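Supplementary Note 2. Why include the ligand at all?

Several targets in our set were suspected to adopt different conformations when bound, so apo predictions alone were not considered sufficient. For every target with a known small-molecule partner we therefore ran a joint prediction. The input for 6-O-phosphono-beta-D-galactopyranose is given below.
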Amino acid sequence: MFHKKLDNFPKDFLWGASSAAYQIEGAATEDGKGKSIWDVYAHEKGNTYKGTSGDVAVDHYHKYKEDVGLMKKMGLKAYRFSIAWSRVIPEGVGKVNIKGLKFYHNLIHELEKAHIEPILTIYHWDLPLALQEKYGGWESAKTIAAFKNYAELLFREFGAEVKYWVTINEQNVFTSMGYRWGTHPPKKHSFKLMLLANHHINIANAEVIKLFHQMVPNGMIGPSFGYGPTYAKTSDPEDVLASMNANDFNNNWWLDVYCTGKYPFFCKKQFEKWNIMPEVTGEEQKILEDTEAHPDFLGINYYHGGTFQQNRIQKAVKSEEQESFDKTDPYLEQPKERNANEPEVPMFNNVENSYVDKTQWGWEKDPTGLRIALRQVYEKYHLPIMITENGLGAQDKVVKGKINDNYRISYLSEHIIAMREAITDGVNLLGYCAWSFTDLLSWLNGYSKRYGFVYVDQNDQENGSLKRIPKRSFSWYKNVIKSNGKDLKVEE
Ligand code: BGP
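The joint prediction is reproduced in token form.
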């Protein structure tokens, strides 16, 4: 579609920013918090960049008032954060930690005072360790019941104050990395286990959405999904077929289940042939297909898409620059080496896109891909969409006390324009949460890779002063919000 003039952003558009508990809170053992799988994983040698962990992170647990104060100063309309399950139920099930709940009540209260809409993520990867040890985490259906019980507590505690809820963050990413590529806890290498854990999470997601509709009838709930459009490398029909396979597995495998309750047909057939498809009982199918268990909106986390060619070679084609960073790319579809649990013939081969630039970390910069993503998702599911993450990871430098992150401003501007084009196309977009508000711990890149509007003096040795310094992008985003997305210029 071509537009001579772009529509304005809706009047009540939620200009926001995001975070996740493990990446910001710190206070890992304080006030009765139990351990999560990340608390242990990050301390095992070689798992994270320079052994960085969320023990201190950016100490948001103690500095939340200062952080919300900065949000207010910026004029932020919405703030997406997650709850650390093990802070409120230390063992995953059973005893509730009142002090943990109190922290989130205080945070939400502070946001309310600042007129910032809270967007609450129930699960952003930090599963209570006890559930992993007792049941094998998401490999066991018992974790579904524990999750439902945890969500019920949150709906009871926060349902009256919080309207927007995210069930699960990037299920596609953490199941792939945790169970297939072995780069997140529980560090396993099995496609079959990944699909099993994933199936349990699908049921958990559906059951919790259904419960939400009973307990918080005026709220809105949905998962946040890491979406990437899948391009064919060439018009060779074999490449087109590979990109269809990629779309089926990278996107539809999750979104179809969330929104219709059905696993995509061809992919499912393939997995049955490989004997890795989990059994879906009649009872489970029923809950997945129950419209009360379907989301009210879709959260889309967008960083980039992917380009695919037929599976004539096993190894992905990568540039040298990307090669040095790709260990940490959660969207990479190829394992370093083939392991025995992987099918011999992959369904598609992930290659570079020569039409787009890359970030310092080799992630493709593709703002048009955001418009494509929004169009594809809206066309297919017709649900309102909230962009729950989008941002640029970079090695910011402090020069004379200032952080001049013009590269981030350009990146965000381009994505905001793409978003406005998608709105003009007709997409129903509720809001945009940039990743991230303050700098925070990158799961596998420590503090070298920063995303925030606010610089935090923290480093990979984890002994920084934790001082907050608004970056240039801070005042820029402030103007964007004030002008409701019209003013994207950078003031000198
Ligand atoms: C998403 C996660 C976020 C955040 C972001 C940036 O996948 O939901 O938690 O980490 O990616 O990732 P990274 O820090 O690896 O660059």
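Residues 313-336 have pLDDT under 50 and may be disordered. The chain has one domain: 14-482. Comparable summaries for the other entries are listed in the accompanying table.
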